[in-house]
């Protein structure tokens, strides 16, 4: 049961038509992100995007325990979206997933479309939308920003795992009953989301304390923030 719990789908977990369907979804979504990201990238944000991608890659290699025999790691969608915006954030996470799949066998090549759809597109989008909905709280002080980052990351993780469950319902062939997979994946990723939320909150507030102008979510905030400890 350990394999279906993992967010990174492996080869053979989805049938061919479903894999191809989500390759198309991923290509379309990443294509839109590529076009939209042009408006967000400049001399200041481009280096930040590189740092975010490198940080997400590194932290995804570090697992933290959530249950006996079950561990999780940062997905990074909400973190990337809060720091560099949803379009650039989606591209950062996509690059990480492609590198992990091709060079580290973390996630199957045939499942790459589903993994990108879940973590780079769905997770980043819902994480960012959650953060935007709570932006007034984030603009109040360091605690508000940390709370918004935490909630956004938690929502990002749970909704990304829901994408996994949906794809398994469409074309799963892992040999495990759908109800068992759904309960395990969603339940475990609520716990993983807590860890994701803590890492995201610490990282976002650290960046904001040093350079609030580099936090995409805080752009346009009317009042001057006091985020230093």
Written description of the protein model:
With 229 residues, the chain is mainly alpha-helical. It is built from nine helices and two strands; from the N terminus they run αααββαααααα. It has helices spanning 2-5, 16-37, 45-60, 77-84, 86-104, 112-133, 135-138, 142-171, 178-210; strands spanning 64-67, 70-72. A two-stranded antiparallel sheet has the order 1-2. A hairpin with a 2-residue loop joins strand 1 (64-67) and strand 2 (70-72). The longest helix is centred in the C-terminal third of the chain and has 33 residues, at 178-210. It is globular, with a radius of gyration of 17 Å. The model has no long low-confidence stretch (mean pLDDT 87).
Relative strand content = under 5%
Principal-axes shape call: globular
Structural class: mainly alpha
- Stretches where pLDDT falls below 50 for ≥5 residues? none
Kindly state the percentage of residues in helix. 55-70%
Features:
two-stranded antiparallel sheet, 229 residues, single chain, 9 helices
Summarize the structure.
By secondary structure, the protein is mostly helical. The chain has 9 helices and 2 strands; from the N terminus they run H-H-H-E-E-H-H-H-H-H-H. It has a two-stranded antiparallel sheet.
Secondary-structure map:
Elements: H1 2-5, H2 16-37, H3 45-60, E1 64-67, E2 70-72, H4 77-84, H5 86-104, H6 112-133, H7 135-138, H8 142-171, H9 178-210
Antiparallel strand pairs: 1-2
